[in-house]
Amino acid sequence: MTQSTEFDYDSVDREQWLHMYEQMCKIRSFEENANELYFSRKMPGLTHLYIGEEAVAVGVCEALRREDYITSTHRGHGHCVAKGASLDRMFAELLGKEAGYCRGKGGSMHIADQDTGNLGANAIVGGSAGIATGAGLSIKMRGTDQVAICFFGDGALGQGLLYETMNMAQLWKLPVIYVCENNLYNEYTHNRETAAGSLKARAEAFGIHAEEVNGQDVREVYSTMLRLVERSRQGEGPAFLLCQTYRFLGHHVGDVNREYYRSKDEETLWKTERDPLKNLAAWMVEAGLAEATIFGQIEEDVQAEVAAAVEFALNAPFPEVSEVTENVYA
Amino acid sequence: MSTPKPNANERIITFSEAIREAIAEEMRRDPSVFIMGEDVAEAGTVFKVLVGLVEEFGPQRVIDSPISEAGIAGLGVGAAITGMRPIIDIMFGDFITLTMDQMVNQAAKTHYMSGGKLKVPMVLRTTLGATRRSAAQHSQSLHAWFSHVPGLIVAIPSTPYDAKGLMKSAIRNDNPVAIFEDKMLYQLKGPVPEGEYLIPFGVADIKREGTDITLVATSSMVQVALEAATMLAEIGISAEVVDPRTTTPLDKQTLIDSAKKTSRAIIIDEGYEQYGVTAEMASVIADGAFYYLDAPVKRMGAMNVPVPFSPVLEDVTVPMPQGVVEMAKMLCNKL
Q: How far is CA A181 from its chain centroid?
């Protein structure tokens, strides 16, 4: 945290901050609509919402190029949007439609978008650590200056695969950045019950460069990632970024009554004082970078875009039943 | 469908040399092919199958890994999705248990889950087979596990010729392919062309023609079946030996056609008999050749016990030629 405070936020163009605000806004609006689709029984299955954690995905992906890779999680819509996916095809996938990113075969937990470097969301906790690290190995072997980002939650710190792959990433100096979204809960269990010792020290034990940021502050996430990405591009190896964050809603859309594992006071504190959208807007107004009214305008525009995307998905056809046996083998 | 057979006048090399030659040829042909695993470089694996590869291709393409089977399988998936063709070396087939999430939930499903956009052209090469006095955690034949999962291809070569052709096909295939090599076959010699040839997946090979009974045999059990066939010939029973060569995809038609011709079938495989690949193949024959059968389809697999260490115990857990002969005689009413 100490290093990132040295970053000069004035060096970032006002338009870029506004773009980050818009991206966070898109994620929030996407998720609110996904929630609505669930409760109105228009979406099959269920989904895991990213509301509250927007600054992590946006701060990280803003520091990337289109050809850089990400791997994502079951709570992956935010990463997908932030990396540049279109909302209409994402909603179509959530509804199991043919126009979806995976032709309706993946659903909410498996959206992949090769064109924006998204190697896929993964419904096995920590399951994509191998894929991201393998992408890093591939980058090194092919000699490009891409980087691979592995998003995972604090729950993945219980998985051995993560440690096997971080070990190899550091041994072979692979351009992989492990982004731990610590939202405090492994589903319905606080991580004080599941994780011994220091979270960051896990990466440091391998000699991996590790930093910790306030994941509710997109400025801090973004500026820190710029440095981490640059050092990986320069061949300095992997990094670990611990982002302190919080999901404002439940583990999934059906997790509505949460008092048995976390208090309403705790939720209220995060929602009121640590909302990444509100905080960025307040800072920009205070710093004289934007009028307060501009944020309302952005929200309106985003909501219109999202509404159109939902409409597209609702009207899109389901795949033909004969599709079921397609794509088992390449 | 038939494929070219090795010419008896060909160069004779071992199964192990055939595997090495296949990998070396593919690595020369395609710079995206690399191999990673425990002790694959200077050691050339514990079975010395890969000796010489690191000298030719360097440690960047013949990579010694930590003892992290899940991790290297996972790196294989990620490298494959992003343009490489990794060969992941898992020393003993027993250790595929450690790769299961990466193979079953990641490698096998990525293409389907992405609606056909992402591909995982990786090979997992590993071993099978008992009778090396290595006990319960280094002797199993677990190819049935991968054969169960849609999205994976499973190859189980039984001869040097098949080993080279199947390995080359595996490396060029755009899907995850697991190839199981029988440890006891590494020194088996046979004719192998020096030049280029591929063996397609899902095409069985008739290793010996016969008219009275079909012996469907895989991998290590092909030699057992051939030996049994020789013994059966001496007592007037003509046995046909059919080697599926891949379990997924399975050449059902060749199995059915052979059983229709002979009217009797035994399936012999070194995996545990319970829920093993023998069950799938027996079912294929029972369904497809029912009206042509003169006897129930029988199965012979490894005994349903953890593989024991003591030689006197271990030897009775694996099908042997004499046991196959007894079963065949019973089915042919020649007891």
A: 8
